[in-house]
Design brief:
Elements lengths: L1 H9 L5 H40 L15
């Protein structure tokens, strides 16, 4: 009788590991997402600066200040 009760209580923690792994995975996902969002602003700034620099080269400018068409 005591063993059957002990087995009953022993079965309740079978899903505990899965829940902990899910919480740990969710935490890592949120940290990774935060890092990605933080770094994406810097990457967008780099591409924006490169785009501005490349589109404003003197060889592509006409006398009116507008880029020439190929």
């Amino acid at each position: 009788m005591v063993r059957s009760i002990a087995k009953l209580f022993g079965r309740e923690d079978l899903g505990q590991d899965l829940a902990e792994y899910c919480l740990l995975t969710a935490l890592l996902l949120l940290v990774g997402l935060g890092i990605f969002i933080h770094l994406s602003g810097g990457i967008q700034a780099i591409w924006g600066n490169a785009n501005t620099t490349l589109s404003a080269t003197p060889a592509q400018q006409t006398s009116s200040g507008q880029p020439s068409l190929p």
